[in-house]
Input
Amino acid sequence: MNVRRERGFAAVIAIILILELILAGCGSNSTKGSEGIQLPKKMKMSFAPGGEPKTLDPQMSDNIPEAIIETALFEGIMRLDKENTPQLAVAKSVEVSSDGLNYTITLKNTKFSNGDPLTASDFKDSWMHALNPSSAAASAYQLFYIKNAKAYYSQTAEAGEVGIKVVDDKTLEITLESPCPFFKSLLALPTYFPVDQLNSQVHYDWSNGAATFVGNGPFMLKSWSHKDKMVLVKNPNYYDEASVKLAELDFNLSADGKEAASDFEAGKLDGLNNLVPEDTLRFKKNGTLKCAPMLGTYFYCFNTTKKPLNDLRIRQALSIALNRQDLMDNVLEGDELPAYAFVPGAIPDAVPGTTFRTAGSNLIKEDIERAKQLLKDAGYPEGVNFPTLTILYNTNGSHRLPAEAIQDYWKKNLGVNVLLQGQDWDVYQKSQQVLQYDIAQACWIGDCVDPMPFLDIFVTNGGNNKTGWSNPVFDQAVETAQKSPDQTVRMKAMHDAEKILMQEMPIIPIYYYEQNYLLKNNIKGVIVSPLACFDFKNAIVQ
Output
Protein backbone atom coordinates (compact mmCIF):
# COMPACT_ATOMS: atom_id res chain seq x y z
CA MET A 1 0.00 0.00 0.00
CA ASN A 2 1.17 3.51 -0.77
CA VAL A 3 1.74 5.10 2.67
CA ARG A 4 1.66 8.68 1.30
CA ARG A 5 -1.73 8.08 -0.38
CA GLU A 6 -3.06 6.46 2.78
CA ARG A 7 -1.99 9.47 4.90
CA GLY A 8 -3.51 11.88 2.38
CA PHE A 9 -6.81 10.04 2.38
CA ALA A 10 -6.86 10.06 6.21
CA ALA A 11 -6.22 13.80 6.22
CA VAL A 12 -9.16 14.42 3.88
CA ILE A 13 -11.43 12.35 6.13
CA ALA A 14 -10.22 14.25 9.20
CA ILE A 15 -10.95 17.62 7.54
CA ILE A 16 -14.48 16.47 6.62
CA LEU A 17 -15.15 15.33 10.20
CA ILE A 18 -13.85 18.61 11.61
CA LEU A 19 -16.09 20.60 9.25
CA GLU A 20 -19.10 18.54 10.28
CA LEU A 21 -18.34 19.22 13.93
CA ILE A 22 -17.98 22.95 13.27
CA LEU A 23 -21.26 23.07 11.37
CA ALA A 24 -23.02 21.09 14.07
CA GLY A 25 -21.67 23.47 16.69
CA CYS A 26 -22.92 26.50 14.77
CA GLY A 27 -26.42 25.01 14.49
CA SER A 28 -27.24 25.17 18.23
CA ASN A 29 -30.98 25.18 17.59
CA SER A 30 -31.00 22.25 15.19
CA THR A 31 -29.92 18.65 14.72
CA LYS A 32 -29.29 16.52 11.62
CA GLY A 33 -31.96 14.14 10.44
CA SER A 34 -31.34 10.78 8.79
CA GLU A 35 -31.25 12.46 5.38
CA GLY A 36 -28.73 15.08 6.50
CA ILE A 37 -31.41 17.79 6.71
CA GLN A 38 -31.10 20.27 9.58
CA LEU A 39 -34.03 19.72 11.96
CA PRO A 40 -35.20 22.08 14.73
CA LYS A 41 -33.77 21.16 18.11
CA LYS A 42 -36.34 20.08 20.70
CA MET A 43 -37.02 22.85 23.18
CA LYS A 44 -36.57 22.01 26.85
CA MET A 45 -36.16 24.02 30.02
CA SER A 46 -35.78 23.53 33.77
CA PHE A 47 -37.27 25.37 36.73
CA ALA A 48 -37.15 25.09 40.54
CA PRO A 49 -40.69 25.66 41.91
CA GLY A 50 -39.63 25.57 45.56
CA GLY A 51 -39.50 21.98 46.77
CA GLU A 52 -41.03 18.52 46.68
CA PRO A 53 -44.85 18.50 46.39
CA LYS A 54 -46.58 16.59 49.16
CA THR A 55 -49.11 15.45 46.56
CA LEU A 56 -50.13 16.16 42.96
CA ASP A 57 -53.79 15.48 43.63
CA PRO A 58 -55.10 18.99 42.86
CA GLN A 59 -57.98 18.62 45.34
CA MET A 60 -55.57 17.78 48.17
CA SER A 61 -52.70 20.20 47.54
CA ASP A 62 -52.47 23.75 48.88
CA ASN A 63 -48.95 25.05 48.32
CA ILE A 64 -47.16 27.13 45.68
CA PRO A 65 -44.75 24.44 44.37
CA GLU A 66 -47.69 22.09 43.86
CA ALA A 67 -49.78 24.75 42.10
CA ILE A 68 -46.93 25.53 39.68
CA ILE A 69 -46.44 21.86 38.78
CA GLU A 70 -50.18 21.11 38.58
CA THR A 71 -50.75 24.06 36.24
CA ALA A 72 -48.42 22.30 33.79
CA LEU A 73 -50.06 18.89 34.26
CA PHE A 74 -53.76 19.81 34.38
CA GLU A 75 -56.28 22.03 32.63
CA GLY A 76 -59.46 23.36 34.18
CA ILE A 77 -62.68 24.70 32.77
CA MET A 78 -60.92 28.06 32.54
CA ARG A 79 -57.25 29.08 32.31
CA LEU A 80 -55.86 32.48 33.31
CA ASP A 81 -54.17 34.52 30.58
CA LYS A 82 -51.26 36.95 30.97
CA GLU A 83 -53.68 39.63 32.18
CA ASN A 84 -54.96 37.23 34.86
CA THR A 85 -58.29 37.10 33.03
CA PRO A 86 -60.06 33.70 32.87
CA GLN A 87 -60.33 32.28 29.34
CA LEU A 88 -62.14 29.16 28.12
CA ALA A 89 -59.94 26.07 28.45
CA VAL A 90 -61.51 22.59 28.32
CA ALA A 91 -64.88 24.36 28.27
CA LYS A 92 -66.44 25.05 24.90
CA SER A 93 -68.78 27.58 26.52
CA VAL A 94 -69.81 28.88 29.95
CA GLU A 95 -73.29 30.40 30.14
CA VAL A 96 -74.30 32.38 33.23
CA SER A 97 -77.92 33.07 34.20
CA SER A 98 -79.09 36.65 34.53
CA ASP A 99 -79.17 36.40 38.33
CA GLY A 100 -75.57 35.11 38.40
CA LEU A 101 -76.51 31.91 40.25
CA ASN A 102 -76.44 29.26 37.54
CA TYR A 103 -73.53 28.24 35.31
CA THR A 104 -74.05 25.89 32.37
CA ILE A 105 -70.74 24.53 31.16
CA THR A 106 -70.34 22.72 27.87
CA LEU A 107 -67.08 20.79 27.55
CA LYS A 108 -64.92 20.28 24.49
CA ASN A 109 -64.06 16.76 23.36
CA THR A 110 -60.80 16.29 25.25
CA LYS A 111 -58.80 13.45 26.75
CA PHE A 112 -56.58 12.73 29.70
CA SER A 113 -52.91 12.01 29.08
CA ASN A 114 -53.58 8.24 29.04
CA GLY A 115 -56.30 8.61 26.41
CA ASP A 116 -59.32 8.33 28.74
CA PRO A 117 -62.12 10.71 27.71
CA LEU A 118 -62.68 13.71 29.98
CA THR A 119 -66.31 13.92 31.09
CA ALA A 120 -68.47 16.17 33.25
CA SER A 121 -68.50 13.41 35.88
CA ASP A 122 -64.74 13.71 36.25
CA PHE A 123 -65.23 17.31 37.35
CA LYS A 124 -68.10 16.58 39.71
CA ASP A 125 -66.46 13.58 41.35
CA SER A 126 -63.20 15.48 41.79
CA TRP A 127 -64.94 18.39 43.49
CA MET A 128 -67.03 16.11 45.69
CA HIS A 129 -63.84 14.35 46.77
CA ALA A 130 -62.49 17.69 48.02
CA LEU A 131 -65.76 18.43 49.81
CA ASN A 132 -65.93 15.06 51.52
CA PRO A 133 -65.04 15.86 55.16
CA SER A 134 -63.09 12.62 55.45
CA SER A 135 -60.69 13.89 52.76
CA ALA A 136 -59.60 16.80 54.99
CA ALA A 137 -58.79 18.90 51.90
CA ALA A 138 -57.28 22.19 53.07
CA SER A 139 -58.56 24.06 49.99
CA ALA A 140 -62.11 22.70 50.12
CA TYR A 141 -63.27 26.19 51.11
CA GLN A 142 -62.63 27.34 47.52
CA LEU A 143 -65.68 25.26 46.54
CA PHE A 144 -67.97 26.74 49.20
CA TYR A 145 -69.39 29.22 46.67
CA ILE A 146 -71.33 26.27 45.23
CA LYS A 147 -74.77 25.74 46.72
CA ASN A 148 -74.73 23.47 49.79
CA ALA A 149 -71.03 22.70 49.32
CA LYS A 150 -70.15 24.09 52.74
CA ALA A 151 -73.15 22.36 54.30
CA TYR A 152 -72.08 19.02 52.86
CA TYR A 153 -68.52 19.59 54.05
CA SER A 154 -69.92 20.40 57.51
CA GLN A 155 -72.13 17.28 57.33
CA THR A 156 -75.41 19.19 57.49
CA ALA A 157 -76.43 18.38 53.89
CA GLU A 158 -76.42 15.31 51.67
CA ALA A 159 -74.19 14.87 48.63
CA GLY A 160 -77.21 15.05 46.34
CA GLU A 161 -78.03 18.55 47.61
CA VAL A 162 -74.74 20.06 46.43
CA GLY A 163 -75.28 22.34 43.43
CA ILE A 164 -73.28 20.30 40.90
CA LYS A 165 -75.31 18.46 38.27
CA VAL A 166 -74.06 16.29 35.42
CA VAL A 167 -76.52 16.71 32.55
CA ASP A 168 -74.57 14.48 30.18
CA ASP A 169 -70.92 13.63 29.47
CA LYS A 170 -70.23 17.09 28.08
CA THR A 171 -72.57 19.28 30.12
CA LEU A 172 -72.22 20.41 33.71
CA GLU A 173 -74.57 22.68 35.65
CA ILE A 174 -73.40 24.56 38.73
CA THR A 175 -75.68 26.44 41.12
CA LEU A 176 -74.08 28.95 43.49
CA GLU A 177 -75.13 29.97 46.98
CA SER A 178 -75.06 33.59 45.82
CA PRO A 179 -73.62 35.50 42.87
CA CYS A 180 -69.82 35.40 42.88
CA PRO A 181 -68.14 38.02 40.66
CA PHE A 182 -64.89 36.03 40.46
CA PHE A 183 -66.27 32.51 40.05
CA LYS A 184 -64.82 32.07 36.54
CA SER A 185 -61.38 32.81 37.99
CA LEU A 186 -61.95 30.16 40.65
CA LEU A 187 -62.68 27.66 37.88
CA ALA A 188 -59.03 28.04 36.84
CA LEU A 189 -57.66 27.01 40.25
CA PRO A 190 -56.12 23.59 40.96
CA THR A 191 -58.95 22.70 43.36
CA TYR A 192 -61.27 22.82 40.34
CA PHE A 193 -59.04 20.69 38.08
CA PRO A 194 -60.48 17.36 36.87
CA VAL A 195 -59.03 14.05 38.02
CA ASP A 196 -59.40 10.96 35.83
CA GLN A 197 -61.85 8.90 37.86
CA LEU A 198 -61.21 5.73 35.85
CA ASN A 199 -57.56 5.92 36.83
CA SER A 200 -57.99 7.03 40.46
CA GLN A 201 -60.44 4.20 41.16
CA VAL A 202 -57.85 1.65 40.04
CA HIS A 203 -54.79 3.35 41.54
CA TYR A 204 -55.55 4.74 45.00
CA ASP A 205 -52.14 6.42 45.28
CA TRP A 206 -52.19 7.60 41.66
CA SER A 207 -50.87 11.13 42.36
CA ASN A 208 -47.60 10.20 44.04
CA GLY A 209 -45.66 8.52 41.25
CA ALA A 210 -45.04 8.81 37.51
CA ALA A 211 -46.17 5.24 36.75
CA THR A 212 -49.78 5.90 37.80
CA PHE A 213 -50.08 9.67 37.31
CA VAL A 214 -52.64 10.94 34.80
CA GLY A 215 -53.46 14.56 34.01
CA ASN A 216 -55.05 16.52 31.18
CA GLY A 217 -52.74 19.52 30.83
CA PRO A 218 -50.18 20.66 28.27
CA PHE A 219 -47.56 18.34 29.76
CA MET A 220 -47.52 14.81 31.13
CA LEU A 221 -45.35 13.26 33.84
CA LYS A 222 -42.54 11.09 32.47
CA SER A 223 -40.51 10.50 35.64
CA TRP A 224 -40.41 11.59 39.27
CA SER A 225 -37.33 11.15 41.41
CA HIS A 226 -38.65 12.33 44.76
CA LYS A 227 -36.95 15.35 46.33
CA ASP A 228 -34.70 15.53 43.28
CA LYS A 229 -36.23 15.97 39.85
CA MET A 230 -39.47 15.68 37.92
CA VAL A 231 -39.44 15.35 34.13
CA LEU A 232 -42.49 16.45 32.14
CA VAL A 233 -42.93 16.01 28.40
CA LYS A 234 -45.41 17.40 25.93
CA ASN A 235 -48.81 15.70 26.24
CA PRO A 236 -49.83 14.31 22.81
CA ASN A 237 -53.46 14.02 24.01
CA TYR A 238 -53.73 17.68 25.00
CA TYR A 239 -56.47 19.38 23.02
CA ASP A 240 -54.31 22.45 22.33
CA GLU A 241 -51.08 20.57 21.67
CA ALA A 242 -50.12 22.85 18.77
CA SER A 243 -49.69 25.78 21.18
CA VAL A 244 -47.18 23.89 23.32
CA LYS A 245 -43.63 24.40 22.05
CA LEU A 246 -41.61 22.85 24.87
CA ALA A 247 -40.83 19.18 24.32
CA GLU A 248 -39.64 18.79 27.90
CA LEU A 249 -40.07 20.70 31.15
CA ASP A 250 -37.95 19.64 34.13
CA PHE A 251 -38.72 20.63 37.71
CA ASN A 252 -35.85 20.72 40.19
CA LEU A 253 -37.41 19.64 43.51
CA SER A 254 -34.72 20.94 45.85
CA ALA A 255 -36.13 22.98 48.72
CA ASP A 256 -32.79 24.74 49.15
CA GLY A 257 -33.04 28.17 47.53
CA LYS A 258 -29.28 28.78 47.71
CA GLU A 259 -28.58 25.49 45.99
CA ALA A 260 -31.08 26.33 43.24
CA ALA A 261 -29.48 29.76 42.77
CA SER A 262 -26.05 28.14 42.46
CA ASP A 263 -27.41 25.71 39.86
CA PHE A 264 -28.84 28.69 37.93
CA GLU A 265 -25.47 30.44 37.92
CA ALA A 266 -23.75 27.23 36.84
CA GLY A 267 -26.11 26.89 33.88
CA LYS A 268 -27.81 23.79 35.29
CA LEU A 269 -31.16 25.53 35.80
CA ASP A 270 -33.15 27.95 33.65
CA GLY A 271 -35.20 29.56 36.42
CA LEU A 272 -36.37 29.48 40.03
CA ASN A 273 -38.67 31.31 42.41
CA ASN A 274 -37.47 30.30 45.90
CA LEU A 275 -34.71 32.87 46.32
CA VAL A 276 -33.22 33.63 49.73
CA PRO A 277 -32.86 37.35 50.67
CA GLU A 278 -29.08 37.54 50.27
CA ASP A 279 -29.32 36.08 46.76
CA THR A 280 -32.27 38.34 45.94
CA LEU A 281 -30.16 41.39 46.76
CA ARG A 282 -27.14 40.05 44.87
CA PHE A 283 -29.11 39.27 41.71
CA LYS A 284 -30.88 42.62 41.97
CA LYS A 285 -27.55 44.43 42.01
CA ASN A 286 -26.19 42.56 38.98
CA GLY A 287 -29.41 43.05 36.99
CA THR A 288 -30.37 39.36 36.80
CA LEU A 289 -33.36 39.51 39.17
CA LYS A 290 -36.84 39.66 37.69
CA CYS A 291 -39.78 41.08 39.66
CA ALA A 292 -43.54 40.86 39.20
CA PRO A 293 -46.56 41.98 41.23
CA MET A 294 -47.78 39.42 43.76
CA LEU A 295 -50.88 39.23 45.94
CA GLY A 296 -49.34 37.74 49.05
CA THR A 297 -48.78 38.44 52.73
CA TYR A 298 -46.02 37.11 54.99
CA PHE A 299 -47.21 36.79 58.58
CA TYR A 300 -46.87 35.00 61.90
CA CYS A 301 -49.61 32.84 63.42
CA PHE A 302 -50.29 32.65 67.15
CA ASN A 303 -51.47 29.43 68.74
CA THR A 304 -54.35 31.13 70.56
CA THR A 305 -55.20 27.96 72.49
CA LYS A 306 -51.94 28.18 74.43
CA LYS A 307 -51.03 30.43 77.36
CA PRO A 308 -50.04 33.25 77.39
CA LEU A 309 -50.97 33.68 73.70
CA ASN A 310 -54.64 33.15 74.53
CA ASP A 311 -54.46 36.65 76.06
CA LEU A 312 -55.34 39.32 73.47
CA ARG A 313 -53.08 41.86 75.20
CA ILE A 314 -50.03 39.65 74.65
CA ARG A 315 -50.80 39.18 70.95
CA GLN A 316 -51.33 42.90 70.45
CA ALA A 317 -48.15 43.78 72.34
CA LEU A 318 -46.01 41.45 70.23
CA SER A 319 -47.48 42.88 67.03
CA ILE A 320 -46.98 46.57 67.77
CA ALA A 321 -43.49 46.06 69.24
CA LEU A 322 -42.04 45.29 65.81
CA ASN A 323 -40.27 47.65 63.43
CA ARG A 324 -41.45 46.46 60.05
CA GLN A 325 -39.81 49.21 58.02
CA ASP A 326 -36.44 48.46 59.63
CA LEU A 327 -36.98 44.80 58.76
CA MET A 328 -37.56 45.75 55.11
CA ASP A 329 -34.64 48.18 54.88
CA ASN A 330 -31.93 46.44 56.87
CA VAL A 331 -32.76 42.74 56.90
CA LEU A 332 -34.67 41.72 53.78
CA GLU A 333 -33.35 44.54 51.55
CA GLY A 334 -35.72 43.60 48.75
CA ASP A 335 -38.85 45.14 47.27
CA GLU A 336 -41.24 43.90 49.96
CA LEU A 337 -43.57 46.40 51.65
CA PRO A 338 -44.29 46.50 55.39
CA ALA A 339 -47.76 45.16 56.22
CA TYR A 340 -49.90 47.16 58.64
CA ALA A 341 -53.01 45.13 57.79
CA PHE A 342 -53.55 41.67 56.30
CA VAL A 343 -55.08 42.14 52.83
CA PRO A 344 -52.42 43.37 50.36
CA GLY A 345 -52.76 46.27 47.93
CA ALA A 346 -53.73 46.33 44.23
CA ILE A 347 -57.13 44.71 44.86
CA PRO A 348 -59.94 46.99 43.59
CA ASP A 349 -62.53 48.23 46.08
CA ALA A 350 -66.19 49.04 45.37
CA VAL A 351 -65.44 52.64 44.38
CA PRO A 352 -63.72 52.79 40.96
CA GLY A 353 -60.12 53.92 41.19
CA THR A 354 -59.66 52.89 44.82
CA THR A 355 -58.07 49.77 46.24
CA PHE A 356 -59.19 47.72 49.22
CA ARG A 357 -56.03 48.68 51.08
CA THR A 358 -56.29 52.44 50.55
CA ALA A 359 -59.99 52.36 51.45
CA GLY A 360 -59.29 50.32 54.57
CA SER A 361 -56.07 52.17 55.51
CA ASN A 362 -53.53 50.83 57.99
CA LEU A 363 -54.96 48.83 60.89
CA ILE A 364 -51.76 48.37 62.92
CA LYS A 365 -49.84 51.20 64.60
CA GLU A 366 -46.47 50.26 66.00
CA ASP A 367 -46.02 51.69 69.48
CA ILE A 368 -43.38 50.30 71.85
CA GLU A 369 -44.64 52.19 74.92
CA ARG A 370 -48.17 50.93 74.44
CA ALA A 371 -46.81 47.43 73.85
CA LYS A 372 -44.98 47.61 77.21
CA GLN A 373 -48.16 48.75 78.92
CA LEU A 374 -50.18 45.90 77.41
CA LEU A 375 -47.55 43.46 78.60
CA LYS A 376 -47.64 44.99 82.09
CA ASP A 377 -51.43 44.82 82.16
CA ALA A 378 -51.19 41.14 81.31
CA GLY A 379 -48.92 40.57 84.32
CA TYR A 380 -45.47 40.78 82.74
CA PRO A 381 -43.93 44.23 83.47
CA GLU A 382 -40.78 44.70 81.38
CA GLY A 383 -41.14 41.06 80.33
CA VAL A 384 -40.45 39.74 83.85
CA ASN A 385 -41.57 36.11 84.27
CA PHE A 386 -42.77 35.98 80.68
CA PRO A 387 -42.48 32.35 79.52
CA THR A 388 -39.96 31.55 76.81
CA LEU A 389 -41.83 30.98 73.56
CA THR A 390 -40.61 29.47 70.29
CA ILE A 391 -40.97 30.77 66.75
CA LEU A 392 -41.48 27.88 64.35
CA TYR A 393 -40.32 28.38 60.77
CA ASN A 394 -39.83 26.13 57.80
CA THR A 395 -36.29 25.59 56.54
CA ASN A 396 -37.41 25.75 52.90
CA GLY A 397 -36.20 29.24 52.15
CA SER A 398 -34.75 31.98 54.32
CA HIS A 399 -37.33 32.31 57.08
CA ARG A 400 -34.72 32.23 59.81
CA LEU A 401 -33.40 35.67 58.83
CA PRO A 402 -36.60 37.65 59.60
CA ALA A 403 -37.21 35.38 62.62
CA GLU A 404 -33.85 36.41 64.09
CA ALA A 405 -34.73 40.08 63.58
CA ILE A 406 -38.15 39.67 65.21
CA GLN A 407 -36.53 37.75 68.07
CA ASP A 408 -34.25 40.77 68.56
CA TYR A 409 -37.12 43.33 68.40
CA TRP A 410 -39.03 41.52 71.13
CA LYS A 411 -35.99 41.16 73.36
CA LYS A 412 -34.89 44.77 72.93
CA ASN A 413 -38.34 46.39 73.05
CA LEU A 414 -40.20 44.18 75.53
CA GLY A 415 -37.62 42.11 77.41
CA VAL A 416 -39.24 38.97 75.99
CA ASN A 417 -37.12 35.94 75.10
CA VAL A 418 -38.07 33.64 72.26
CA LEU A 419 -36.31 30.65 70.76
CA LEU A 420 -36.17 29.70 67.06
CA GLN A 421 -37.01 26.26 65.70
CA GLY A 422 -36.62 25.29 62.06
CA GLN A 423 -38.40 22.26 60.61
CA ASP A 424 -38.43 20.62 57.19
CA TRP A 425 -41.42 21.58 55.07
CA ASP A 426 -43.45 18.40 55.67
CA VAL A 427 -42.90 18.36 59.44
CA TYR A 428 -43.53 22.11 59.69
CA GLN A 429 -46.89 21.80 57.93
CA LYS A 430 -47.99 19.01 60.25
CA SER A 431 -46.91 20.98 63.33
CA GLN A 432 -49.05 23.91 62.22
CA GLN A 433 -52.05 21.77 61.36
CA VAL A 434 -52.21 20.13 64.80
CA LEU A 435 -51.26 23.33 66.68
CA GLN A 436 -47.94 21.99 67.94
CA TYR A 437 -46.30 25.41 68.04
CA ASP A 438 -46.31 28.73 69.91
CA ILE A 439 -45.71 31.22 67.08
CA ALA A 440 -45.34 30.06 63.48
CA GLN A 441 -44.12 31.72 60.30
CA ALA A 442 -46.68 31.57 57.48
CA CYS A 443 -47.62 33.14 54.18
CA TRP A 444 -50.74 33.40 52.09
CA ILE A 445 -51.12 34.00 48.37
CA GLY A 446 -54.51 35.03 46.99
CA ASP A 447 -56.57 32.66 44.87
CA CYS A 448 -57.95 35.53 42.80
CA VAL A 449 -57.89 39.33 42.72
CA ASP A 450 -60.37 39.83 45.56
CA PRO A 451 -60.05 40.31 49.35
CA MET A 452 -62.11 37.21 50.13
CA PRO A 453 -59.29 34.62 49.76
CA PHE A 454 -57.36 36.50 52.45
CA LEU A 455 -60.25 36.49 54.90
CA ASP A 456 -62.25 33.30 54.56
CA ILE A 457 -59.24 31.20 55.54
CA PHE A 458 -59.75 32.35 59.16
CA VAL A 459 -63.37 31.33 59.56
CA THR A 460 -64.12 28.92 62.40
CA ASN A 461 -62.73 25.44 61.65
CA GLY A 462 -61.45 26.55 58.24
CA GLY A 463 -58.94 24.13 56.74
CA ASN A 464 -56.24 26.82 56.64
CA ASN A 465 -57.08 28.44 59.98
CA LYS A 466 -54.12 27.07 61.92
CA THR A 467 -54.41 29.41 64.91
CA GLY A 468 -57.19 27.88 67.03
CA TRP A 469 -58.95 31.26 66.83
CA SER A 470 -62.68 31.64 66.30
CA ASN A 471 -64.99 34.64 66.21
CA PRO A 472 -68.69 34.38 65.22
CA VAL A 473 -68.93 38.07 64.28
CA PHE A 474 -65.98 37.63 61.91
CA ASP A 475 -67.63 34.50 60.47
CA GLN A 476 -70.85 36.41 59.88
CA ALA A 477 -69.09 39.28 58.12
CA VAL A 478 -67.34 36.81 55.79
CA GLU A 479 -70.63 35.04 55.09
CA THR A 480 -72.33 38.36 54.31
CA ALA A 481 -69.62 39.18 51.78
CA GLN A 482 -69.84 35.72 50.26
CA LYS A 483 -73.60 35.89 49.74
CA SER A 484 -74.12 39.47 48.59
CA PRO A 485 -74.15 40.32 44.86
CA ASP A 486 -73.64 44.00 45.73
CA GLN A 487 -69.97 45.00 45.59
CA THR A 488 -70.54 47.87 48.04
CA VAL A 489 -72.07 45.50 50.59
CA ARG A 490 -69.39 42.89 49.96
CA MET A 491 -66.50 45.29 50.42
CA LYS A 492 -67.95 46.82 53.59
CA ALA A 493 -68.43 43.36 55.10
CA MET A 494 -64.86 42.40 54.21
CA HIS A 495 -63.48 45.62 55.70
CA ASP A 496 -65.43 44.81 58.88
CA ALA A 497 -64.00 41.29 58.89
CA GLU A 498 -60.44 42.50 58.46
CA LYS A 499 -60.85 45.01 61.31
CA ILE A 500 -61.96 42.20 63.62
CA LEU A 501 -59.01 40.08 62.50
CA MET A 502 -56.58 42.90 63.25
CA GLN A 503 -58.23 43.73 66.59
CA GLU A 504 -58.23 40.10 67.76
CA MET A 505 -54.74 39.56 66.30
CA PRO A 506 -54.55 35.76 65.91
CA ILE A 507 -51.90 36.63 63.32
CA ILE A 508 -49.23 39.31 62.86
CA PRO A 509 -48.90 40.67 59.31
CA ILE A 510 -45.21 41.29 58.60
CA TYR A 511 -44.85 42.29 54.95
CA TYR A 512 -46.43 42.12 51.50
CA TYR A 513 -44.66 40.04 48.89
CA GLU A 514 -43.10 40.94 45.59
CA GLN A 515 -42.57 38.05 43.17
CA ASN A 516 -38.78 37.84 42.92
CA TYR A 517 -37.55 35.15 40.55
CA LEU A 518 -34.86 34.20 38.06
CA LEU A 519 -35.45 33.23 34.43
CA LYS A 520 -32.97 33.15 31.59
CA ASN A 521 -33.51 35.91 29.05
CA ASN A 522 -33.82 33.47 26.16
CA ILE A 523 -36.97 31.96 27.66
CA LYS A 524 -40.14 33.75 26.61
CA GLY A 525 -43.87 33.23 26.97
CA VAL A 526 -43.94 32.18 30.63
CA ILE A 527 -46.92 33.73 32.42
CA VAL A 528 -46.00 34.92 35.91
CA SER A 529 -49.23 35.37 37.83
CA PRO A 530 -49.74 37.74 40.80
CA LEU A 531 -51.15 34.62 42.46
CA ALA A 532 -47.56 33.25 42.61
CA CYS A 533 -48.03 30.72 39.84
CA PHE A 534 -45.88 30.18 36.74
CA ASP A 535 -47.61 28.91 33.57
CA PHE A 536 -45.28 27.24 31.06
CA LYS A 537 -47.88 26.27 28.47
CA ASN A 538 -46.71 28.86 25.92
CA ALA A 539 -43.05 28.98 26.93
CA ILE A 540 -40.41 28.97 24.21
CA VAL A 541 -36.61 28.82 24.25
CA GLN A 542 -34.98 31.21 21.79
The CA atoms of residues 150 and 156 lie 9 Å apart. Residues 3-26 form the longest helix (24 residues).
